[in-house]
Amino acid sequence: MIRASAYTFKILRFDRKEPGDKARFQSYRVRIIPGLTILAVLNRIRDEIDGTLSFRSSCRSAVCGSCAMVINGRIDLACRTQAASFGTDTIILEPLPNMDIIKDLVVDMTRFWTMYEKVKPWLYRSGPDPEKEIGQTEDARALIDQFVHCILCACCYGACPVISRDPEYLGPAALAKLERFVLDSRDERPRSALNEVNSEHGVWGCDTALKCIEACPKNVRPTDAIIDLRKRLFIDKARQFLGIRK
Ligand code: FES
Residue 149 is part of which domain span? Predict the structure, then answer.
């Protein structure tokens, strides 16, 4: 027989629409069975205990990226994290850092999306649309594989130590997405497009603290992307200096 155990969930509560509201933890006691995810617990709290609790979710299967939050100090997706996996019966839930809280576990992602848009995250073609689909070899596809897996959950953005001191920093997700298109055999963006990220708010801002890699639930390695973009910029500069044309 599966036994249920009582857990305490301490959830950060805040409502920016309430003037003078202060962020505070509210505790909920919930009986759970092994295997239950944090998202399932949140749904139960909202449906059965406190209908005012706010959080984001959609797919419930680590695909949409909506449910990113801080779970016992670790950034992860609530729908893929089992409540019983921490070895403690107290679970602390907080919203993603580096973004303003709208309500409870829901953060304002406007800046994340603004930075993302800045790298022009789409397949760039210089000519008119082709008559038929543009082919890609398996080897070429493998080059972009890890970056295609990004679900834009902003776990990396929340974990990045640079964003907390430089809100203009593009951030790991945006730079990893740029790398995804730079590496794509079908993309024809001019090399000069990299100049957009050639600044301290772009690739040179990264501390290489690897926090983004640690936080990514999809095993994307944004720091690797940033280092590769730096290398490309450096090579371009060296070529320019030596008068070498491509
Ligand atoms: S609900 Fe979609 S990633 Fe968690």
Answer: 110-242
